[in-house]
Amino acid sequence: MSKPNKIRVILSTAACKLTRSALRKSGRGGTAIPGKVAMKFAGNILEATSEGMEIVVVTGTNGKSTTCGMIDHAVRSCGHDCLYDRSGANLLSGITANLTCNAGWTGKPKTHYAVIECDEAALKQVVPLVHPKAVVVTNLFSDQVDRLGGVENTLEEIRKGVKLVPDTTLVLNADEPRSASLSLNVPNRVIFYGMNKEVGVRGDIDLKDAGVCPVCGGAWTYSYHTYAHLGGYRCEKCGWGRKDPDVAISSIEKVGPDGSEVNMQIHGKNRSVRIAIPAVYNISNAAAATAACMALGLSIPKVLDSLSSAKAAFGRLETFDLNGQRLQMILVKNPAGCNQAFSYLTGLKEDYTAVLCLNNRTGDGHDISWINDTDYEMLVSDPHLKKIYVAGECRSQLADRLKKAGLPASAMQLVDDYGSLLQKLMREKNPVYALPNYTAMMELRKVLAEATGRKDFWE
Ligand SMILES: [Zn+2]
């Protein structure tokens, strides 16, 4: 497709802005529709409304939103404007809407930098239009199998996108063999990030998503293991394996509910870094964000400083104050992410109440069989877990899974609606950790936001 002409750009931009404003006036968020309307006037309007910008696109199974938020905050901390759409709309239509509404009436971008969260399958549509400076791939895990068709398929979808932008820097997770394999046979500059040793996370090595050596089909051997199938892998047959990361976590000094302290090694230099967003998996996201900022050529000391004040993305370790009691919300949508959340909770060594919410609507994937592959046994066997509330449309299936994991009926309460859940949580004596999947998170967050005065994301 050639670039749209000036008249079409103006028409398309106007249509996009007016549609979004009309939707908002009627009280709807409207993340995708304005983009669809804009594309009716000029199919590749995104190419015009992103022209000349320095853009980072973030894709992968887990950690996209948090990594985007960290990059956005780092760019701003370096004194630049940055565009980032916190609504999480990550398909072509939503991305088009966001960049086009950000442009002036002639379609010229208003900010120089942008961070775009992109669905793995949409990458090949988005990157040829926005010509990103960097594409970050966080990791690849089994997720929403009914939509993407397995982790191998997802990797191929990402590879199609990567092939379209040979000048883009790839920021890849050195610890995760599938995403690291994107560095093979491409002319792109590659920046690797990763964790150089074990991190004390509970859970055994899980090779379900590891695949085989992309060079010769050989099996992996691991010299150390961080979580799931991530760690120091190497092919027994041909020797291909983990690359030394350019941004490396060399040690983890502290992990708590208010953040982590780590040592990073960048270009051989050791730096002590505080990361405000808690949990071990966000240490990896912080390394990804740092590597992306390196691709943008930003000041690394300023970027590392910014990690100490970056705030959690919508629903991802967002903290609410309930009558003086802390409630942290952790979005979970697949076994790997859920197990990481459990290992965060069990690692804190404080008494707590857990809230698990499960829906199976379109935004979640209709197939909830992933709960069978999730290590609820880790959660249930934690002596600090004092109570579990179970809510959402699939609460009875989740309750069955928890019983199977060994949770006594006396420790579990099924709750029918979020209003009464909130009443119960208001009376809790222990910190509360809520683990909803996507549409359940939207509902629970709405109730929490109303009770605590937090705004909706599009305001
Ligand atoms: Zn091999």
CATH class of the largest domain: Alpha Beta
Ligand catalogue: zinc ion
Q: What summary fits the major beta sheet?
A: 9 strands, mixed
Strand arrangement across the biggest beta sheet: 2-3-1-4-5-6-9-10-11
Q: What fraction strand?
A: 15-25%
What is the first-to-last residue Cα distance?
Answer: 35 Å
Describe this structure in words.
This protein is α/β, with parallel strands linked by helices. The protein has two domains: 6-193 and 279-306, 3-Layer(aba) Sandwich (UDP-N-acetylmuramoyl-L-alanine:D-glutamate ligase); 316-452, Mur ligase, C-terminal domain (Protein-Tyrosine Phosphatase, Chain A, Alpha-Beta Complex). It is built from 16 helices and 17 strands. The chain has helices spanning 6-25, 33-41, 45-49, 64-77, 92-102, 123-130, 145-148, 151-163, 177-180, 280-296, 300-306, 335-347, 376-380, 395-404, 418-426, 438-452, and strands at residues 54-59, 82-84, 113-117, 134-137, 169-173, 190-195, 220-225, 231-235, 247-256, 259-266, 269-275, 316-322, 325-330, 352-357, 385-391, 412-414, 432-436. The strands form three sheets. Strands 2-3-1-4-5-6-9-10-11 form a nine-stranded mixed sheet, sandwiched between helices. A hairpin with a 5-residue loop joins strand 7 and strand 8. The longest helix is centred in the first third of the chain and has 20 residues, at 6-25. It is globular. The protein binds zinc ion. The site of zinc ion has 8 residues, from loops. Zinc ion is lined by residues 213, 215-216, 218, 235, 237-238, 240.
